[in-house]
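Cross-posting from the chemistry board since nobody answered there.

I work mostly on the small-molecule side, so proteins are not my area. We synthesized S-adenosylmethionine and want a rough idea of how it might sit in this target. Sequence and SMILES are below. Is it possible to get a predicted 3D structure of the two together?
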Amino acid sequence: MGDLLEQADYGFDSLHYVALADTRFANYAKKELSKLPSNSITFQTHHIETWMFSGSSSIAEKDLSDVSRKFSFVDNILKLHSQVELNGDDYSSLEGAIAKVIKKEDSHSFSIEVKKIGFVSEKKAKDIEVILGLHMESLGIIPELKNPKRTILVALTKNIGFVCESSPSNHVDRFRQANASKYAAINRAEYKIIEAMQFFGINPTGYVLDIGAAPGGWTHCLSELGSKIVAIDYGLLFYDKFSNGKKILVLAEHPDEQTLVNATKNFDNITLAAFDSELKYSDFDIIHVRASNIPDVLQHIIKAIGKFGMLMIDINGSSTEGAHLADMSANFMKSGADLVLTVKLQNMAVMRHVSKAEEILSGKYNSVSVKKLPHNREEITLHAARD
Ligand SMILES: C[S@@+](CC[C@H](N)C(=O)[O-])C[C@H]1O[C@@H](n2cnc3c(N)ncnc32)[C@H](O)[C@@H]1O
């Protein structure tokens, strides 16, 4: 089977690319892609969750990741090496194309990530990764799962396989790929906050306030990066996932409540206490607050630890509820502090949800920007700075 790309007439000086976007934002993504210099989208397909565009543009390869970072609704833009016809679960044409791409470079340190976009097979993407990896091994080019220098993303549509260049730090599905790395994420949400920090250029300083923290993905992520956190949620956190040595304080209205006692009793790094206790708050890496009177508790805590340098809100409430919480918490934030707010989209009126949230934030925050992060599901992420 031939390489379809080689036969296509794209003209010179064009970079072939594949762009992935959430189906719900496909029209916005297409508008953004149309801004690429001399862009021509030649192929598009869609699956329940993902739209895939393939096209060519005169953009330089080195500018590709910069450009994708500027787009709010495109999840990833990847350099397209090759595209081949598929024939059911016979991957031979694909294997040949992948081997060719890997052998072209001096370094053969690579991993393979598969994404199914309407490709019908009983095999899961992970199973296909294994089949392709084993085939590469049989050719003497051995995938490196822990620290690959490059990642080959293979996007499978109904009958075409696209072989693209990704990067090990930018997996299309980071949570699924995470078992290959040493980092034990609590949940997929952790990758949202990693992406948010990368996209919005956030470098947290001082304490971080995490509202809607359970089961603890964002708190875990920031804690592992070295921040101290106050985590607000009535739900419990996965306390066992935090590195040994992290000192955790759980502040509760009823610290003798049985579920709480049971969840924390096996950890000697956890202190369980009532709100009014006069503990030295700055001794703890994580303070988990299970409360209904949050403003009072926060007022009390910031007397000891100072105002927060970052606020993260990821509640499963309406699009305006999170913005109201940001507004109410503004007095606890330092000037210039970063706000990351997940806005749930109850329907497709994306910009209405965003502008409602913006309106609420406008009294106390500035420079609001928006990004549909690759790991956002039926939601979008806002970033702003405290006035
Ligand atoms: C999607 S989960 C958060 C996931 C979390 N960011 C993580 O990384 O694991 C939403 C959480 O928001 C909490 N929540 C909803 N409304 C809240 C509110 N008004 N105040 C605090 N927490 C709230 C829920 O209890 C739930 O645990």
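Reply from a structural biologist on the board:
Welcome over. Reading the output above for you: The chain has a mean pLDDT of 90. The CA atoms of residues 116 and 156 lie 5 Å apart. Happy to explain the token format if needed.
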